[in-house]
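Customer escalation, tier 2.

The customer says the design service returned an amino acid string that "doesn't look like it belongs to this structure." They asked us to rerun it and document both sides in this ticket. The original structure tokens are below, unchanged.
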């Protein structure tokens, strides 16, 4: 395709997308389905990735959404919407109370009562009522000025539009949280990362009819500007809210003493998994309004309130089921499906159970109440089981003795180095005969460090497998693009793009090729060592005839485990067939001959022992990059001996 045609195609696509945007956001008309819209957007972004010269200020990669804030008028809050200071420990709470007592010039002899209100993780809003009528609803905005989202808020059933109670203040701004229940979020999962995003997105729809479609809830907890309020403490105010027709948090409590706040905190943290809404801590407010008034504010937070946050990397949940996932090397990994819980802002619904031994050691069962940890980017895992909460009828989890994918026996291998049975149970079938293993092998084959085929991600591999488009690695290079282009969400251009990206990867280095075969225990580093040893694909493949596996043990960096694994690989007929087929399609480059010029020319090195902070393989490649030679035994010709620990 010529550059001009590509540019024209790109510009047209952007024009179409922006037309859909305008229709949707300004006129609330959907001219295409969501998936057609998404695929158009994806096409544009793929084009930009492929042809670096394409760019446009109207591209979806530049514009996020459709200028949402312009949709709403701004308005000032009569009384600013403040934020809260955070506490993470009992100590933080003791300090909080100490400061209060100091401020009030009291020496610990004032027994302060607090309301303890579970802090819902949603979007706060302020509702202005005048003479019992809802006249305006604002978002928090920057705390001083919010967006006028009255019509959207008015779609929420929990928000009373008229309040007839006699003691309802003449004028009042009722404040609370808009949120989505976890059960309702189930249906919105595809579109939003978590219930909070879903609530925020729905509240900001241009058209209230769109907001109405989403089951938003509202819980009230405080007020801003008020005229004619006849209540003198927060707990009574919460009760009044109910009488007036608002929903309040059913777990609100009136408590005095920090010790008792902690007892309540621990109790609520355990209840968290059973709640139908996300909470991320507990808000404590001094109950007495006159004390609140005396204490006043610091910066943009009140002195009389604090948010006691839950740990941001741990939470309690319930195991709904235990799934067994099968990896590329046949390893069976148990995964706990847990009741979704927000840990540090991320909705977690899976936790790894590592392996069979781990399940047995911790006696983890379906139905158990467990503490889940999610630290950094590590996969969430189970820290402990609360045995007291175990259902009476619960049964020990029996790990499957057969592969759930292909039914083959599962085995635990004996590790000749540790002289112990391995903790991991594996499917005993050989590679491509097990469906799940095959899919994982294909995913590995196209992955970044292997063939690095752009546009052929994990989901597409799974889809193509299910459609029987691909079964073995070589099938990838023989895809029927006509069929691909007819799939939902595809089209001529996306199929062409995929064809292009697959075809450019037909040439590959021997080292990457060996790595992409996914031979167990042969990672990037070993693949490099092996490719250097064999130098060409032909030599590598010959191993299946010569069966000189023992020779491989002489290669530095290769141990018995790796050699056995290579032997296993070559003794499998399907693997040999895959090699034959790939040989026909690919151009596998020989290892480039040794460097001829460099600092170490004509010098030999022997590297032995454990080196600190650098692998032997890396040292060797440094030597070779500089034209040196590494040898594996001492001889007269040896120039340098590099010795690490325990040579
Ligand atoms: S009172 C001055 N009460 O927490 C008092 N806030 O970090 C400020 N929140 O923006 C608000 N539950 O979105 C209060 N029971 C509750 C709350 C609550 C949740 C949120 C609210 C606010 C944030 C403060």
């Amino acid at each position: 395709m010529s550059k001009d045609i590509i540019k024209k195609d790109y510009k047209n696509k952007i024009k179409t997308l922006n037309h859909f945007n305008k229709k949707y956001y300004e006129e609330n008309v959907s001219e295409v389905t969501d998936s057609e819209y998404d695929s158009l957007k994806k096409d544009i972004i793929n084009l930009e990735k492929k042809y670096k010269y394409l760019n446009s200020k109207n591209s979806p990669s530049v514009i996020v959404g459709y200028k949402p804030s312009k949709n709403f008028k701004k308005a000032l809050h009569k009384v600013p919407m403040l934020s809260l200071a955070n506490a993470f420990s009992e100590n933080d709470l003791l300090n909080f109370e100490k400061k209060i007592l100091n401020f009030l010039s009291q020496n610990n002899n004032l027994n302060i009562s607090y309301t303890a209100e579970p802090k819902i993780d949603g979007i706060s809003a302020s509702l202005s009522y005048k003479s019992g009528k809802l006249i305006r609803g604002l978002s928090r905005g920057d705390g001083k000025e919010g967006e006028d989202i009255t019509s959207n808020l008015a779609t929420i059933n929990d928000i009373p539009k008229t309040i007839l109670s006699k003691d309802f203040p003449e004028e009042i701004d009722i404040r609370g949280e808009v949120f989505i229940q976890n059960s309702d979020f189930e249906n919105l999962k595809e579109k939003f990362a978590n219930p909070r995003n879903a609530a925020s997105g729905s509240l900001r729809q241009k058209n209230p009819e769109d907001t109405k479609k989403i089951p938003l809830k509202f819980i009230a907890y405080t007020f801003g500007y008020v005229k004619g309020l006849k209540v003198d403490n927060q707990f009574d105010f919460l009760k009044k809210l109910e009488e007036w027709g608002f929903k309040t948090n059913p777990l609100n409590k009136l408590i005095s003493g920090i010790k008792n706040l902690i007892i309540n905190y621990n109790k609520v943290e355990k209840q968290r998994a059973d709640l139908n809404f996300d909470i991320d801590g507990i808000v404590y407010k001094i109950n007495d309004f006159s004390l609140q008034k005396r204490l006043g504010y610091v910066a943009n937070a009140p002195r009389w309130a604090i948010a006691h946050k839950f740990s941001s990397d741990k939470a309690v949940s319930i195991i709904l089921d235990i799934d067994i996932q099968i990896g590329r090397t046949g390893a069976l990994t148990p995964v706990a499906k847990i009741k979704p819980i927000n840990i540090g802002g991320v909705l977690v619904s899976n936790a790894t159970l590592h392996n069979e031994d781990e399940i047995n050691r911790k006696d983890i069962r379906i139905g158990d109440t467990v503490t889940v940890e999610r630290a950094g980017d590590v996969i969430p895992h189970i820290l402990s089981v609360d045995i007291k909460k175990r259902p009476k009828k619960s049964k020990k989890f029996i790990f499957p003795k057969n592969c759930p994918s292909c039914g083959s026996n599962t085995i635990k291998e004996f590790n000749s180095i540790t002289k112990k049975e391995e903790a991991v149970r594996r499917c005993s079938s050989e590679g491509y005969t097990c469906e799940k293993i095959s899919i994982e092998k294909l995913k590995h084959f196209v992955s970044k460090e292997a063939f690095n085929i752009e546009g052929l991600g994990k989901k597409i591999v799974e889809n193509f497998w299910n459609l029987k488009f691909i079964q073995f690695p070589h099938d990838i290079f023989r895809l029927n693009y006509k069929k691909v282009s007819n799939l939902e969400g595809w089209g001529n251009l996306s199929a062409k793009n995929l064809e292009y990206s697959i075809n450019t990867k037909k040439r590959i280095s021997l080292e990457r090729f060996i790595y992409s075969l996914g031979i167990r225990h042969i990672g990037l580093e070993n693949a490099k060592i092996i490719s250097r040893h064999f130098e060409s694909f032909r030599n590598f493949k010959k191993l299946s005839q010569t069966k000189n596996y023992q020779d491989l043990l002489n290669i530095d960096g290769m141990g018995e485990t790796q050699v056995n694994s290579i032997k296993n690989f070559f003794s499998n007929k399907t693997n040999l067939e895959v090699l034959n087929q790939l040989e026909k399609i690919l151009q596998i480059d020989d290892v480039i001959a040794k460097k001829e010029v460099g600092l170490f020319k004509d010098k030999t090195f022997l590297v032995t022992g454990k080196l600190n902070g650098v692998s032997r393989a890396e040292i060797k490649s440094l030597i070779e990059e500089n034209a040196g030679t590494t040898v594996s035994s001492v001889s007269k010709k040896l120039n340098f001996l590099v010795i690490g620990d325990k040579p």
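Tier 2 assessment: The sequence is consistent with the input. Residues 121 and 279 are 5 Å apart (CA to CA). The chain is about 35% helix and 25% strand. Sent an explanation to the customer and offered a walkthrough call.
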